[in-house]
């Protein structure tokens, strides 16, 4: 039912091998699901989800069919540093592993790591890439806008908010500028593999609600793929557009949230959120208000902000 192997992702400049563990469940008779966590090292709730899912699968071994491939720590470099990206000294080309899929076996450190894991992910029938949003972000699942199989996979996972993201020629200019085409979810979907990215809320700390939601989502995903008996729990999820034109800081300073806007609220243009002010002169640098209607799915609570940083994320409601 279960095997694990220690694999080499790449080599560090010293020659030390950079390793991780790949877990395989099942007998190969049925679909294959690939799931990974901690592609960004701060995002640890997904790793704990896979640890608990391990126990669930062993207890359900007689009911399980197909193959599940699980990688609880996809990026050991950032995991060890509790960071989002790798230091420039190790990868000056692709500091963010989730911008270089499907990788290159002869490329930079992260490209080689992605290429190694793609040997497992690239043959899967579906992929779940577990991530973790900030403390002030609603749990949600992202999928490719207009892709029915990806949406069905997202609905099976079961978050209350599903964000449809346009890609390729249909995407915003900012999407292209930020090299989002190299995300695992995008690269895999373009290869014909339905893929979702659940964002489990909270990072750097293990949060029981987020972990429970992740385990339940994985079990329902397995049911959806007929790898476990039963039906995925019905969902009344809100479908919204993963809008990249978020409300950003015009200048650096301290961001004081003093409006009535909260996570999950439906907002309209002009709704007041707060202000960015200079902490030395007390001058107000920016009155912050929402510039579009939709659902607030992220709200910055760390007071010190820099120009260009996201203060509020608003998802536009969709009817698909």
List the SSEs and their pairings.
Elements lengths: L1 E10 L5 E10 L5 E5 L8 H15 L7 E5 L4 H6 L27 H13 L4 E4 L10 E5 L3 H10 L3 E5 L7 H5 L6 H7 L4 E5 L8 H17 L13 E4 L5 E2 L4 E5 L8 E2 L4 E6 L6 E6 L4 E6 L4 E2 L4 E8 L3
Parallel strand pairs: 3-4, 3-5, 5-8, 6-7, 7-9
Antiparallel strand pairs: 1-2, 2-4, 6-8, 9-17, 10-17, 11-13, 11-16, 12-15, 13-14, 15-17
Helix pairs in contact: 1-7, 4-7
Tell me what the structure shows.
With 320 residues, the chain is an alpha/beta fold. The chain is 23% helix and 28% strand. It is built from 7 helices and 17 strands. The strands form 2 sheets. Strands 1, 2, 3, 4, 5, 6, 7, 8, 9, 10, 12, 15 and 17 form a 13-stranded mixed β-sheet that branches. Strands 14-13-11-16 form a 4-stranded antiparallel β-sheet, with no helix packed on it. Helix 4 links the parallel strand 6 and strand 7. Helix 1 crosses helix 7 and helix 4 crosses helix 7. The mean pLDDT is 94.
Summarize, please.
The chain has helices spanning 45-59, 76-81, 109-121, 148-157, 173-177, 184-190, 208-224; strands at residues 2-11, 17-26, 32-36, 67-71, 126-129, 140-144, 161-165, 195-199, 238-241, 247-248, 253-257, 266-267, 272-277, 284-289, 294-299, 304-305, 310-317.
């Amino acid at each position: 039912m279960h095997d694990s192997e220690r694999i080499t992702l790449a080599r560090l400049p010293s020659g030390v091998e950079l390793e991780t563990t790949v877990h395989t469940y099942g007998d190969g008779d049925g679909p294959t699901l690939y799931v990974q966590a901690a592609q960004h090292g701060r995002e640890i709730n997904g790793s704990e989800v896979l640890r608990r899912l391990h126990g669930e699968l062993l207890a359900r071994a007689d009911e399980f069919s197909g193959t599940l491939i699980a990688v609880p720590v996809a990026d050991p470099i950032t995991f060890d540093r509790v960071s989002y990206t790798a230091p420039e000294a190790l990868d000056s080309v692709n500091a963010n592993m989730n911008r270089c899929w499907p990788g290159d076996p002869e490329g930079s450190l992260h490209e080689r790591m992605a290429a190694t894991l793609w040997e497992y992910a690239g043959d899967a029938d579906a992929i779940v890439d577990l991530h973790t949003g900030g403390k002030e972000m609603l749990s949600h699942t992202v999928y490719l806008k207009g892709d029915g199989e990806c949406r069905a996979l997202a609905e099976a996972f079961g978050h209350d908010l599903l964000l449809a993201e346009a890609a390729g020629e249909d995407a915003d200019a900012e999407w292209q500028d930020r090299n989002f085409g190299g995300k695992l979810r995008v690269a895999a979907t373009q290869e014909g593999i339905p893929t979702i990215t659940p964002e489990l809320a909270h990072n750097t700390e293990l949060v029981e609600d987020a972990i429970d939601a992740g385990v339940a989502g994985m079990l329902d995903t397995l049911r959806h793929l007929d790898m476990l008996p039963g039906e995925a729990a019905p969902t009344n999820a809100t479908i919204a557009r993963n809008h990249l034109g978020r409300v950003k800081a015009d200048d650096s300073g301290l961001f004081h949230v003093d409006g009535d806007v909260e996570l999950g609220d439906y907002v309209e243009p002009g709704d007041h959120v707060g202000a960015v002010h200079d902490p030395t002169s007390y001058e107000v640098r920016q009155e912050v208000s929402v510039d579009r209607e939709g659902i607030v799915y992220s709200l910055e609570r760390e007071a010190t902000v820099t120009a260009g940083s996201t203060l509020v994320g608003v998802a536009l409601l969709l009817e698909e």
